[in-house]
């Protein structure tokens, strides 16, 4: 039976470290780091995510401000709010919760966020720096997975890692980080996607599989080499009448059948999700230190 990677516990430990760091900053006369979030519309999952981020900021002593905008907010209104926040020297990090309602141009929105406040690490400037291995804000989910692997002491050097999904926020940066040179990386990476024929051919050879496609229970036991490390990024809301909310969160891995043959596995919920938020906090603290040191 696989070792379960307890993302929640690892995230809590790191949050404790961040809280100590923030307290130290304040003691030294700096202000607490400040994260701004923009939420457009009332998508249930997005509202939940923003709520979690707000709570996490509070837990570690970060200031947070959430700008809640109407669903029918225009592109111009959204961009001018972003520019206003860009110019506010008391705000260190800015995230715009995605996806945005139809009619708003996500890439333009991302491009408008000042690169030095882009704590989601989605701006082309930060993406480019990451690609070159230069210090940058790493996208929160891949950054969180890198931390999970490191904290769980999982050897990556020379391992074959198969990533399923090529999104700009998970799959592609993940491939970049794991194939980079150095400790905690040095993987040989195969990036699979919806046009990959015979996906099983690749996954069966993988030492590490990162499933990030958003199809519940997609990765089944017959696709996994015994002893592989399984990282489940997927979060899909599936109907569950036994829950008060009427749904539960389902990962991309058929957990019950894959766990017995894997060496390590992340659960959903409680695996990658909590680490994503921790990475956002880390990026915000880093952004704040850079900003406040400039003065
Ligand atoms: P996306 O929808 O942007 O992209 C999905 C990718 O999966 C695409 O690149 C596509 O090519 C690939 N894909 C689709 N069907 C496939 C198939 N049958 N075989 C192989 N590849 C296939 O996805 P995303 O934004 O990266 O999110 C993926 C999942 O991860 C979603 O469930 C999302 O909710 C979840 N997610 C979780 C976190 C977290 O913090 N845990 C963060 C981001 C995303």
TrEMBL record:
Its EC number is 1.5.1.5, 3.5.4.9. Catalyzes the oxidation of 5,10-methylenetetrahydrofolate to 5,10-methenyltetrahydrofolate and then the hydrolysis of 5,10-methenyltetrahydrofolate to 10-formyltetrahydrofolate. Keywords: Amino-acid biosynthesis, Histidine biosynthesis, Hydrolase, Methionine biosynthesis, Multifunctional enzyme, NADP, One-carbon metabolism, Oxidoreductase, Purine biosynthesis. It comes from Candidatus Egerieousia excrementavium. This is Bifunctional protein FolD. Pathway: One-carbon metabolism; tetrahydrofolate interconversion. GO terms for cellular component: cytosol. GO terms for molecular function: methenyltetrahydrofolate cyclohydrolase activity; methylenetetrahydrofolate dehydrogenase (NADP+) activity. The gene is folD.
């Amino acid at each position: 039976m696989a070792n379960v990677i307890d993302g929640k516990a690892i995230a809590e430990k790191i949050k404790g470290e961040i809280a100590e760091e923030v307290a130290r900053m304040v003691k030294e006369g700096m202000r607490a780091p400040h994260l701004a979030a923009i939420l457009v519309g009332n998508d249930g999952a997005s509202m939940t995510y923003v709520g979690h981020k707000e709570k996490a900021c509070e837990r570690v002593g970060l200031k947070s401000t959430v700008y809640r905008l109407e669903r029918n907010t225009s592109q111009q209104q959204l961009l001018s709010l972003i520019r206003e926040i860009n110019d506010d020297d008391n705000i260190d990090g800015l995230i715009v919760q995605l996806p945005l309602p139809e009619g708003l141009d996500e890439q333009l929105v991302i491009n408008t966020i000042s690169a030095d406040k882009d704590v989601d690490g989605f701006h082309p400037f930060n993406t480019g720096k990451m690609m070159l291995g230069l210090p940058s804000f790493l996208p929160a989910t891949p950054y969180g997975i890198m931390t999970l692997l490191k904290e769980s002491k999982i050897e990556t050097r020379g391992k074959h890692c198969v990533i399923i999904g090529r999104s700009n926020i998970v799959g592609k940066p993940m491939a970049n980080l794991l194939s980079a040179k150095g400790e905690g990386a040095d993987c040989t990476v195969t990036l699979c996607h919806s046009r990959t024929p015979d996906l099983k051919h690749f996954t069966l050879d993988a030492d590490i599989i990162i499933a990030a496609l958003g199809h519940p229970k997609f990765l089944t036991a017959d696709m996994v080499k015994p002893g592989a490390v399984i990282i489940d990024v997927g979060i899909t809301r599936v109907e569950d009448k036994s829950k008060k909310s009427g749904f539960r969160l389902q990962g991309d891995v058929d957990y019950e059948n894959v766990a017995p043959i894997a060496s390590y596995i992340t659960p959903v919920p409680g695996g990658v999700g909590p680490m994503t938020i921790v990475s956002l906090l880390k990026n915000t603290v880093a952004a704040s230190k850079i900003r406040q040191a400039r003065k």
